[in-house]
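Q: Can I see a sequence and its folded structure?
A: Here is a first one.
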Amino acid sequence: MRTLFTTAARIARPSLRRRDLAILALLSQSALRVHELVALNIEQIDDASKTLLAVKGKGSTVHDIPLDSSALALVRAWIDDRACWKINDERALFLSHSGRRLSVRAVQQLFVRLRVAMRTAKKITPHTMRHSAATLALYLGTDLINVAGLLRHTDLNTTRGYISLIDTQRREAVRRLATTIPDELLAARSSPLTTDIVPQQPTPAATAAAESRETSATDPPCAHHDMDATSASCG
């Protein structure tokens, strides 16, 4: 995400640099759809409450969307630049180089230029920015209901799809970590590298038999005969 911002700052024309950065800020921080972005008017930015006011979404819904300080700073920087443009009564927040409301197509072309400049094969579009915002919010511990509110989903099951995506990504991360274990150790798992033999505890019967053998070895040869016989033969 940071690379996207630095690339935009590097390749944009000076007069459009702050506009492009503000576009990225709203798409990535507020999870706007591209048609919601281009429909914004300048009076919908409320600095005092750090809010995008009355954003028109799907199904004729209208939402107030909070802004973080970083996004608001980039939007405000663009508004300051915008004030220097020679425009008539255009209320659009984002303008084309000709001073008219920016089109969806123009925003899509901006992302094509960014992807080429970054030399990446990854799919980077205005809509993937929305997905990234939702995924990152979940990674950072935001609960599902608040993420659904950020995305303006009416059905919570739609938002649950992002949890499945995160689980897949985590499993892939764990799979990659597995490569840090040397293969030769895995191959030797059936034959231990060290042979530490743990002595078994003898059974009571085995102990008695051993003691009997020890007694036989130390007693005199006639110890097993009758006492009288012993006296006669050994006297």
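Q: Show me another, different protein.
A: A second, unrelated one:
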Amino acid sequence: MKKFLSILLSLAVAVTAMTAFAVTASAIDLFPDAVTAKSGKEVEKTMSSMSTKTYKFSVSKKGTLEIKVTHTSSQYVTFVLKDSDGGVIGASNSEAKAGYWDRSAAYPRDGVFSGYKTYNLTKGTYYLEVYSSNGGLVSFTPTYPSTASTEKRVSYLSATLEKGSTLQLGAVLSDGKAGTAEWSSSKSSVASVTSKGKITAKAKGTAVITAKVGSSTVKIQIKVTA
């Protein structure tokens, strides 16, 4: 009986250890050599025969991941996208301009492949495993929603006024109707603004006029010349 209980206890410990291992396994364990690939930046790698390289994408919000691929080789290169748990994600669309796709494998024509794959993703971390059958130059450019956006945006509008001149501003709401805004100036000694949006240029310098309607604000930089 004691021997039987000892065997049961050993099995319970073994099962518990296996369960704990499964729970604590992470993407670091699954993809220890993953290299971060930034959105919009080309990745170029000369791969040896039968080699694999893994790349990491940090997607900031729901959107589309596009991978534009080119490679030179006499055989195929596979591109397999996985989530942080190692699950394979299927492409939503793919196209080849030179060569052809066979599921995840990109086959060249006359030694050259060119094409793309797209994936519909949610916010999270993803991994692209690139495998080359017989080596060659592989390059791809990933494009996906990321926090490191290089897109330029307007900080505020600007206008130049001569000292003593005035400018009447007004607010138009998103429904196309005129609205009442709260007006303020960052430097009233340079450019003041009334409650109705009338700006008066007082002295040489720069001031920022702010119009606020609810939680929405618009800023106008006023440069006053002598």
